[in-house]
Amino acid sequence: MSSLGLRVTVRRTAVDPKELRRLQSACAPANLNPIVGRSAVNTFREHFFGLNQSRPNKLGGRRTGFYAQAARSTSSVATETGAIVSVNKEGIRQRLNGGEIKPGPGRQWISIPAIASAHGKLAREFNDLRFVLIRSGGNALAALKRVTGHGRERIDSAGNVTGGGEILGAVVYWLKKSVTQKPDATVLPYDELIQSRIERDVSSYVTRRLGGSTT
Questions:
Q1: Cβ atoms of residues 113 and 126 within 8 Å
Q2: For residue 59, what is the DSSP state?
Q3: Which residues sit opposite 123 in a β-bridge?
Q4: Which helix (H) or strand (E) holds 191?
Q5: CA distance 130 to 5
Q6: Range of the domain at 43
Q7: DSSP letters spanning 157-180
Q8: What is the C-alpha separation between 140 and 98, in angstroms, rounded?
Q9: Secondary structure (DSSP) of 7-56
Q10: What is the pLDDT along the chain (215 residues), one digit of tens a residue?
C-alpha cells in the first residue's frame, strides 16, 4: 500500500518535574508509535468491514468477503519515526488506483462473471463450459446443455446462446482481452478520519499515563 503521512501533536502542560518526566516517557517514540499504529489499524478495519456489508456483488451471487479479508489482513509496525500500516490483500491497490487489468502470464482472457453462480468462482471450476464466438462481437464461455450437431452460435437478448445444431445455455462468463477499472478513493478511510482517530486515541493514552485531562 502507499504510505500515508500524518502528524500527531500532543499538547499537555506539565509543571511538576515528575509529571514532566512521565509525559516525556509517554511521548517517547517507543511508547507512542505503537498506539498510533494500532489506532490507524482499527480505523482501517472498521472501514473495510463497513464496505463488506454495504457493497454486495451486483449479480447477487455468493459473497467472497473481499473487504472482510482486507480488514483481517491489515496490520501495523512501529518504527523510530512513526508507524507503518499495511493491507496485505491483493486487489486493494487496483481498486484504489484503478487502471488497466490484463490476463495473467500464459492466459489470453479475463473472465467476467455474467451470472450470480459464477461470482467468486474460477471458470475451471465448471466442467460444462463452451467457448463461444459471438457474431455481434465479443467472446464468452457458455454452459453446454445439449449437442445435436454443429453450427455457428448466436446470443439472444436474454444472454442465451443458440445456433446451428447446438443448443447452449446462458453465458456464464464474458471474455475480455483487458478491462479498465475506475479509481475509487473510498476504498480507504479518509485522511481526516484517520487523523482524528489517532489524535483521540493518543490523547486517551496520554491521559491514562498521567491522569487528569489533556489541554
A1: no
A2: T
A3: none
A4: helix 191-210
A5: 50
A6: 17-98+188-210
A7: TTSEEEETTEEEEEEEEEEES-EE
A8: 24
A9: ---------SHHHHHHHHHHTSHHHHHHHHHHHHHHHHHHHHHHHHHH--
A10: 444 555 555 555 555 667 677 777 877 888 899 999 999 999 999 999 999 999 877 766 677 899 999 999 999 999 888 899 999 999 999 999 999 999 888 888 888 888 888 888 888 888 878 887 776 667 888 775 544 444 555 555 555 555 555 556 678 888 888 999 999 999 999 999 999 999 999 988 888 887 754 44
Residues 6+ apart with CB under 8 A from 40: 4, 76, 83, 85, 194, 197, 198
Taking residue 61's Cβ as centre, other Cβ atoms within 10 Å add up to 16
C-alpha cell at 210: 498521567
Would you say residue 5 lies in a domain? no
93 shares a domain with 116: no
Backbone angle region of 61, left / alpha / beta, with phi > 0 → left and psi within -120 to 50 → alpha:
beta
Beta strands in the chain (DSSP E): 74-78, 83-87, 99-101, 110-113, 129-133, 139-147, 154-155, 160-163, 166-176, 179-181
* Domain match, 94 and 27 both: yes
In a domain, 92, yes or no: yes
- 80 and 106 assigned to the same domain: no
